[in-house]
Amino acid sequence: MRYILIFILFSIVSFGQKKSNLSQEVWVDSVYNQLSFDEKVGQLFMVAAYSNKDEAHNKSIDKLIEENKIGGLIFFQGGPVRQAKLTNRYQAKSKVPLFIGIDAEWGLSMRLDSTYRYPWNMTLGAIQDMKLIEKTGNQMAKQSKRMGIHFNFAPVVDINTNPKNPIIGNRSFGETKENVTLRALALMKGLQDEGVYATAKHFPGHGDTSTDSHHTLPTVQFDKNRLDDVELYPYKELIKNGLTSVMVAHLNVPSIEPRENYPTSISYNVVTNILKNELQFNGLIFTDALNMKGASNFKKPGDIDLEAFLAGNDILLFAENVPVAIKKFNEAKADGRLTEERLAYSVKKILAYKYKANLQNYQPIVLENLYNDLNTVEYDALNYQLYENAVTVIKNETKSIPIAQLDKEKIAYVKLGNDSSEVFVTKLKSYANVTEITSKNLDSVLVELQDYTKVIIGYHKSDGAWRNHNLTFRELLWINQIAKQNDVILTFFTKPYSLLTIKNFESVETIIVGYQNNAIAQTVVPQVIFGAIGSKGKLPVSIEEHFKVNEGIETLAIQRLGFEIPENVGMNSKILTKIDSIAKYAIDKKMTPGLQVVVARKGKVVYQKSFGNHTYEDGATKVQNTDLYDIASLTKIIGTLPNIMQEFDKGNLTLESKLKMMLPVFKGSNKEDATVLDMLTHQARFQPWIPFYKATLDSLNKPSEKYYRTRPTVEFQLKVAEDLYLRRDYNDTIIKIIADSELLSKKQYKYSDFSFILFKEYLEKQNGKTLEYLAKNNFYNQLGATSITYNPLHYFDRSVVVPTENDNYFRYQPVHGYVHDMAAAMQGGISGHAGLFSNALDIAKVMQMYLQKGNYGGMQFITEATLQKFNTCYFCKDGNRRGVGFDKPQLGNEGPTCGCVSLTSFGHTGFTGTMTWADPEKEIVYVFLSNRTYPDSNATNKLSKENIRENIQKVIYESIIE
Predict the structure, then answer these.
(1) What DSSP string describes 599-615?
(2) In b/e form, how buried is each residue of 319-337, taking b as 16+ CB within 10 angstroms?
(3) For 917-937, what is the HEC assignment?
(4) 3-class SS at 168?
(5) Which residues contact residue 447 at a Cβ distance below 8 angstroms, ignoring those fewer than 6 apart?
């Protein structure tokens, strides 16, 4: 590389308009004095380069660098690795290091594939926390620096006062000078603090134009006073705060350039008198691209370049013919129009900024790991925060959101628009039963919607900055007719201007603006609807007289689980991915055909994945997050225990309550004085297990006709499995067997299902309702835990229920959709110790309710005092780790957890290969569901022997970084 370098005593990288230091001046003068006139002129040009074009294009850039000594390149479309390679190639050929610039208003993805995309400026305009926008600038700068880019041609400071503006629109922060300026300052600071030059554009203001300067010369009719008060306001503030550069637009502004249709970019009055003299801007001045019709229609290549330079611009962007332009500069020098002093002013300024960018110590771009460096999880973490702060509720008159009483709602979803709504619908369904209405006929839709209490309408359009997001006549008709009939929550995943097509909002109860149709926005909006987060955004623009700029209703967060990037709750995503490896290992070693894992922290789900298949057979169904597993003994703390705690809150039970008072049938038995505390801590001396089913088998160990029928009758109603019905009175036999069973000789910890079987009897007798009814109506319906159920085939298709075993000892059939536990099956699938099916997410909701001291979704299910009683280890000193109903961490080396949880943590494990655990100190909820019992529950429990559940839990704790 033929760089002109001299010995530098020290270097200081600074931004804005700071006084040059001595070493900078020495370097600048040294380089300048070694350049010929043509080479000096070459420094003024920043030429368009592409990394998606052929070698002929690349060689044309080589030629401009080698022969014309151009000063820089502005990269357009391509990819990051290709561009980095070309940057290294071009820099190696350049006599003076090149400036590299790019339009990256919403990140490098504005021009490059495989790079990160941030929200449009209009979306950022809704955010009220400027620190988030500053952080956006920081991250954009880091990505630019990684690509060897020195200029991000951002922020756009145009004040978009014309909603029909065809070229600015979403690129603007909004319609008021104050809002635009605050956000532009934050973005500028973020960029420049990280060492990348910011460029405010499009001077003097492109926000109130109705045509596109790429195709014609737009006209701005405001007088000088209006321009000075509004359009120039952001520039004044940014200049005061150290703005590096300004880009001058191609506009026709008669009030400041009287020559008819004379572009501002080549106007001496605009560039020199106003920008440099009146606004006292001493930084670099760029023209907008000189190939744009707003400029190129006015003068030919070469002439337009010279005219722009004489007007006061420093850098000529996207010059179409550099050799011709250099020739025109020579002619201007010869006839006296161009002086050495004028040329030196701009060229030395350019060189000074190259020095400040440390180009005197240029290093090639390192290609290794480039893609990963440009797409780190920290960028996702910020993007989630941006959308969480942008989503704007502009109408909520009936306080429809957050939707609180889920048990009283029947919710439908209707999609409008032509783009994807998949993530939105999935997340809506993670909070409640939401029915998608797919009919294309409006009359049919209206009939279907008659029974629904709320209808969520999602308007989804392709997420492009310049796309048309206007509602069609058909879509307007649908909104109007549905809103007349139903309570509607209207959600826009489009720019806010799409609301302008609606002329009357009276019949719509709730309106949410999500701004963009991408996975993050579609994840955040449902959280606002259901109260996992509150809305914080404010409208960046007005919607005629209906909704004014800065309007936005702050809704409440009501303590429901949300969805978040791990880093935003103090966890490391990369470490969490180790869970994937453990899960795949378990499946590969046939410890279980498949599994689900959910991890939440601080009320946010940060990991939700499913692995493997329902069974080992070829073509078996892949496990989905929504599939239901038999959760086995998790039933104890998910179904029975919360209802027991409610009985405590009602005053019906205490820890000292005795079994004979709860169930009079036990009076006179050896168990009559067993207390609630002893029963729920597994030290009531109950037998650990009795195989009740064996007494109902015949001499061939098959279901006896004395007890079973293949079809239901009046006497045989307890469905144990497919085509297998037990006598309806057999539950009494089970209770009698328990009552008559011997007590263990010693009072000590011995795990037994009997306590929970008996508590089911108590709860049902006490309340006159089945345990299924109590669990659903007291908890699941209000929690939005829609998948938790007994007897899942009553409510779900068999295809979403994971099988648990091929039974060859009792039922002699695949156990699929029926509870695996034999005793629970003999109780009709509903018992206190087993019977529940669920997906992992809904288990997490119950556990999160516990973590939140009994509160969830704005409802207090259990008092904090009662929860505290139950999450206490009363007999740790005696070697019994159990809480009241809850399992607790091991006291020695052996136990249910990784050994890395806090002593206040609690949970349970299940025979089918399940586990859930909550830790109040680390605010962690962990759920693991599997069917390790398939196909043979009597096979070696390899899942347990290899500590798969515990190893995953260990990874969770290793991932905690704060």
Answers:
(1) EEETTEEEEEEEEEBSS
(2) bbebebbbebbeebbeeee
(3) EEECCCCEEEEEEECCCCCCC
(4) coil
(5) none
Q: Using CA of residue 582, residue 584, residue 589, residue 594, what is the dihedral sign?
A: positive
**Cβ atoms of 78 and 104 closer than 8 Å:** no
Chain centre to alpha carbon of residue 283: 39
First to last CA, the chain: 46
Task: Compute the chain's Rg from CA coordinates.
Answer: 35
Supply the DSSP string of 830-863, one letter for each residue. --SSS-EEE-HHHHHHHHHHHHTTTEETTEE-S-
Alpha-carbon separation of residue 856 from 404, 559, 866 (angstroms): 10, 5, 16
Q: 543 has which bridge partners? A: 547
Q: In whole angstroms, how far apart are CA 357 and each of 14, 94, 628?
A: 8, 16, 58
Burial of 369 (0-12, 13-18, 19+ CB in 10 A): exposed
pTM across the whole model: 0.95
Q: Which of 67, 65, 75, 68 has the alpha carbon at shortest distance from 97? A: 65
What burial class does residue 365 get, using C-beta atoms within 10 Å of its C-beta: 0-12 exposed, 13-18 middle, 19+ buried? buried
Alpha carbon 72 to chain centroid, angstroms:
37
Mean per-residue pLDDT pooled into runs of 10, the chain (962 residues): 31 40 94 97 98 98 98 98 98 98 97 97 98 98 98 98 90 97 98 98 92 82 95 98 97 94 95 98 95 74 95 96 97 97 98 97 97 97 98 95 96 97 98 97 97 97 88 96 97 97 95 98 98 98 96 97 98 98 98 98 98 97 98 98 98 98 97 98 96 97 97 96 97 97 96 98 98 98 98 98 98 98 98 98 98 98 98 96 97 92 97 98 98 97 97 98 88
Q: Is 883 left (phi over 0), alpha (psi -120 to 50) or beta?
A: beta
Classify strands 805-807 and 855-856 as parallel, antiparallel or unpaired: unpaired
| Count of alpha carbons within 13 angstroms of residue 191, beta-carbon side | 32
How far apart CA 340 and CA 322 sit, in angstroms, is 19
Phi/psi at 102 (5° precision): -160, 145
